[in-house]
Design brief:
Elements: E1 16-29, E2 35-37, E3 59-60, E4 63-64, H1 65-74, E5 78-81, E6 105-107, E7 113-115, H2 121-131, E8 134-139, H3 146-157, H4 163-170, E9 181-184, H5 197-209, E10 220-223, H6 231-241, E11 247-254, H7 271-281, H8 283-298, E12 305-313, H9 332-347, E13 352-358, E14 368-371, E15 374-377, H10 379-386, E16 393-401, E17 404-407, E18 410-413, E19 415-421, E20 427-433, E21 440-447, E22 454-460, E23 479-481, E24 485-488, E25 491-496, E26 500-506
Parallel strand pairs: 1-21, 2-5, 2-13, 5-8, 8-9, 9-10, 10-11, 11-12, 12-13
Antiparallel strand pairs: 1-16, 3-4, 6-7, 14-15, 16-19, 17-18, 19-20, 20-26, 21-25, 22-23, 22-26, 24-25
Helix pairs in contact: 3-4, 5-6, 6-8, 7-9, 9-10
The structure holds alpha-L-arabinofuranose (AHR).
């Protein structure tokens, strides 16, 4: 491979150039940007995470052992639960105590199926404990009361002797769970109560009042934000309630097709559809900028975080599946949408300190798909594996000249990237080539830091943008060692294959 890195940058117009100013550290990239979302929806919990202790599927305390092992590898930092829309109809007391005595309810949002409540608060919190992940519990504001919320938090967190803590102890958990992160409502402008922002802001203040810091546990309250470009919601809620929150959320789902009614197949799509999906995923950048502008008006010190607590691609459901289960396949295209989205959030990591991919298992842009006793890691899973390189690192200042990826009469920058520095001085670079057809040459110059040797180089790609992993062929899209680079002093010349993602760590 002929890699030219000695000529001045301007001499070769088709080469992409990135200068990393390693002595200009920006914000910390919180590991919580790499969080997950697990809703009582389809087989996202039942079958996907929870099979029960008596299941023939190998399990650990009722949780699928294969799923636990796969998630441990990702060092999942946090998991948001129980919804989503489900959260605003969930009554927490249905999901505690002896399982055979728990009531059967209808899951009205997702397929009108019976929710037997066998996976409830203690199961969820034990699941996060095994994984070493922080729980993020979404409270019911739409149909619940402040009193129910207050008792739920007391049940989870109070160490002393009270009716609620006694209940928890009777259910087998002596020590408090120490839940810190809670969401106060979900999409309160829609499935969470169809509220106006003025009404929600007042209700938020009322609920937030009764969030107590039991037993020295400092709570972190996240208000329900809007999706896409509804900046007026953020404006009103921040104006009226910013002083009582630690975070506000943003949701953004990429829809590659022409409308929500025709989102397009998750497997069967051409380059036009691919281009449209990738381009639309980049709108997250505009939406974060728009919401942050409003947040800055009321919180210029950036005390309140923006939590992108639902994001990912949403396609048509797989043919033959229950449309209320939101089951879709996950292709290389989706992995690229994940890396592009994560780069955007890394870039805004001064304000975006938490995010949750929708969703963790079997639902929407899942990182894991199961069926009976079978499990497969999706292409998106591998992106989360690669991006662990950026956990709790410092975002570095960069300057770049990037080629365009053109399709029909539209164009987008061909490359997305993040450069970060670890505490021990390691430089971590992730690069995504969005171009479905052309490889890209990239010259990276690192200033203000002496580079040592490359310790990790990994590549994720496949022959087609719609390549998927199946139970029969689980490694069609998987990580392989990457060696298409030349390191010369402080310059790194890289050949990025078409439709690929690369992570490189330099000591
Ligand atoms: O993730 C599926 C649904 O999308 C969530 O329940 C809801 O919050 C959003 O509209």
């Amino acid at each position: 491979m002929a890699l030219i890195f000695l000529l001045p940058f301007t001499a070769i117009s088709q080469v992409n150039h990135i200068i990393i100013n390693a002595d200009q550290e920006l914000s910390t990239i919180s590991r919580h940007i790499y969080g997950h979302f697990a809703e009582h929806l389809g087989t996202g919990i039942y079958g996907g995470v929870w099979v029960g202790e008596d299941s023939e599927i190998p399990n650990t305390e009722g949780f699928r052992t294969d799923v636990l092992e796969a998630l441990k590898q990702l060092e999942v930092p946090n998991i948001r639960w129980p919804g989503g829309c489900f959260a605003d109809e969930y009554y927490w007391r249905d999901g505690i105590g002896p399982r055979e005595q728990r009531p059967a309810r209808l899951n009205t949002h997702w397929g009108m199926v019976i929710e037997d409540n066998s996976f409830g608060t203690d199961e969820f919190l034990r699941f996060t404990e095994i994984l070493g992940a922080e729980p993020v519990v979404a409270m019911n504001v739409g149909s619940g009361t402040p009193r129910e919320m207050q008792q739920w938090i007391e049940y989870m967190n109070y160490a002393g002797d009270s009716e609620m803590s006694r209940l928890r102890k009777e259910n087998g958990r002596e020590e408090p769970w120490g839940v810190k992160y809670i969401g106060i409502g979900n999409e309160s402008w829609g499935c969470g109560g169809n509220m106006r922002p003025e009404f929600y802001a007042d209700l938020y203040r009322q609920f937030a009042t009764y969030v107590r810091n039991y037993s020295g546990n400092q709570m972190f309250r996240i208000a329900s934000g809007f999706d896409t470009d509804k900046y007026w919601w953020t404006d009103t809620v921040m104006e009226r309630a910013a002083n009582m929150m630690e975070g506000i959320s943003l949701h953004y789902y990429t829809v590659a097709g022409e409308s929500w009614q025709r989102k397009g197949s998750s497997v069967d799509f051409d380059e036009e559809h691919y281009f449209s999906g990738v381009k639309r995923s980049m709108r997250l950048d505009d939406f974060i900028i728009g919401h942050v502008e409003k947040m800055d008006l009321y919180d210029p010190q950036k005390r309140v975080i923006l939590a992108v607590d639902e994001w990912g691609i949403w396609t048509d459901p797989l043919p033959g599946t229950n449309p209320g289960f939101l089951q879709q396949q996950n292709s290389l295209r989706d992995a690229l949408i994940a890396s592009i989205s994560l780069d955007i959030m890394n870039k805004h990591s001064d304000r975006v300190k938490m995010a949750n991919i929708a969703q963790m298992v079997n639902v929407l842009q899942a990182v894991i798909i199961t069926d009976g006793d079978r499990m497969v890691k999706t292409p998106t899973y591998h992106v989360f594996d690669m991006y662990r390189a950026h956990f709790d690192t410092k975002l570095l200042h960069t300057e770049a000249t990037i080629n365009n990826y053109e399709y029909n009469d539209e164009s987008i920058p061909a490359i997305s990237y993040t450069a970060s520095k670890s505490d021990n001085g390691r430089i971590n670079i992730t690069l995504t080539n969005k171009d479905a057809v052309q490889s890209q040459e990239v010259e990276i110059e690192v200033k203000g830091h002496d580079l040592g040797t490359v310790s990790t180089g990994k590549l994720l790609t496949s022959d087609k943008v719609n390549s998927i992993n199946t139970f029969e062929d689980p490694d069609r899209v998987t990580l392989v060692d990457f060696d298409q680079y030349v390191l010369n002093g402080n310059r790194l010349a890289i050949t990025l294959p078409a439709k690929s993602i690369v992570v490189i760590t330099v000591e």
